[in-house]
Amino acid sequence: MTRVRTGRTTLLTTTAVLGCAALAGCTSPPPVLPDETPSATAVPTAPTAPWGQLAARVAAARDNRFVATYSLQKPGRPARTVSVTIAADGSWLVVVPGGALGGTADVAVAQTRAGLFDCTTSGSVNCFRVGDAGATLPARSDPRIEHLFTDWLLTLSDRDAAISVDPAPPPAGAHGSCFSVGPDSAALAMPVDAGIYCFDDKGTLTAAAVTAGTLMLVSGPVAAPPTVTLPGPVVPGTPLATAAPPASPSPTASAH
User: Fold this and answer.
1) Which CATH fold topology does 64-222 show?
2) Residues near 32 by beta carbon (within 8 Å), at least 6 away in sequence
3) pLDDT per residue over 73-116, tens digit each?
4) I need a surface site. Which of 36, 43, 90, 108 has the fewest CB within 10 A?
5) Residue 54: CB partners within 8 Å, gap ≥ 6?
6) pTM metric for this prediction
7) Where are the domains of the chain?
8) pLDDT tens profile 52-75
9) Residue 153: which of 122, 199, 109, 112 has the closest Cα?
């Protein structure tokens, strides 16, 4: 007696054949996990957190080589023009009119392979070697503007730095993305000056409002020279102080 196969057996066989045909003809898309949504090929996106946005611009700034000029304004002082050169070999020169002796003397800070220098650029032009490259100026002689283009860039791109970063409106006349930088809750001392820092998407510092004043880009950036040249000869001595010298004592009135 011949045994008749059931309809279930036929259905399973048909399903298996169709499944094999599907596998032979195409590749199934990967499953969508419960916490995912279907999408096309992933496209990298720009950072959305303020610190990430600032760090991205600062990373570009650290690679920039340029010459630019900035307007520096501080309450009670006339506007001054600061020139900045970051040369192709990594040497740099920042000229700060009125950067010493309470605004009465012009100075320049430079770093080359030969070391760090502080120069007087008004009157007798001379440069004083402060130390090796990477040294820091004594606080009494530091105009602080040069840090915006040099070592503070390292701090602003360091996730472990004791700073907080928030979006900020640009100072009047400034462009680019601006960020308010201040101490975080664990900071004992700020590694950079608190204030407003503005960068464009190419990493150019377009404005900054810090203790030294409000800096605003007015021309450039343009191509950098191969290296910087000190504005004067290197001589023995110490850099000028930023503060005004003490006033001479007034002569006492003659006793009557």
Assistant:
1) outer membrane lipoprotein receptor (LolB), chain A (2.50.20)
2) 38
3) 998 889 999 999 999 999 999 999 999 999 999 999 999 999 99
4) 43
5) 156, 165, 177, 179, 181, 197, 199
6) 0.78
7) 64-222
8) 999 999 999 999 999 999 999 998
9) 199
